[in-house]
Write a structure and sequence with these properties.
By secondary structure, this protein is an alpha/beta fold. It contains eight helices and eleven strands. It has two domains: about 170 residues, HAD superfamily/HAD-like (Rossmann fold, 3-Layer(aba) Sandwich), CATH 3.40.50.1000; about 70 residues, 2-Layer Sandwich (Alpha-Beta Plaits), CATH 3.30.70. α2 packs parallel to α8. The chain binds magnesium ion. Magnesium ion binds next to loops. The site of magnesium ion (MG) has 6 residues, from loops.
Amino acid sequence: MLENRLDQLSRAGVLLVGCDFDGTLAPIVESADDARADPESLEALHRLVALPRTCAAIISGRSWRDLDARLPKRGGLILVGSHGSEFEPDIVGEMTPQRRALRREIIETVGALTEWFPGAWAEEKPSGVALHTRACDARSESDAWRAVLDGPGSWPGIFVREGKRIIELSVVASHKGDALAMLRDRLKADGVVFFGDDATDEDAFGVLRESDVGVKVGPGDTRAGFRVASPADVRRLLAYLARQREFAIRGGPGDGRA
Ligand SMILES: [Mg+2]
């Protein structure tokens, strides 16, 4: 049962709570411009981030700036915009010198690999490199993919997106799953819960581990382990999680001690 799983998660060493914005934290309204986070859901997130070893991130398709403008009281909330590619500067930054160097390295490595696989070619991208294999025969294609996935695709700091006869390697997160996985790493989270309602949230559900909790809001296929009907349920669950976490950490509801 969902509440039992949230109980377990509330006792995680470091807890990361991830939440989509529209349709999850903010009820859907006619004009996207009018969307506002449910005040009680937001309050629950603020209670969570006020606790030690507890982080919360809003991960949305909206731009970071748009998201920021919609959340006048930020507290310790982490905002991630543009489906995972726009982090705030102090969390990841965009193309740091290290990332630029890493991008160079994967471009060269993938470029060199194409020599071995007839038909394969590499395309430089702003944040990485794409390997195209549509001109390969089946054997050469599967060998090229294996070489890229086992090679540069497995390096730390590299994000892989597999498409139709194309693999893209990037030095920045490119979807919500990347973003959530990166946050988990950086925050050293032991437990993760993610709430989302859209197709793009499936990438985030896809990176959850067995002990994590994924909650899909509304109808539609999902990889999440749980489903609720609406943002009102998210509000209830976030409040529940905040209360359980307060108990787990402080042995009682918030008393101001950290
Ligand atoms: Mg949504």
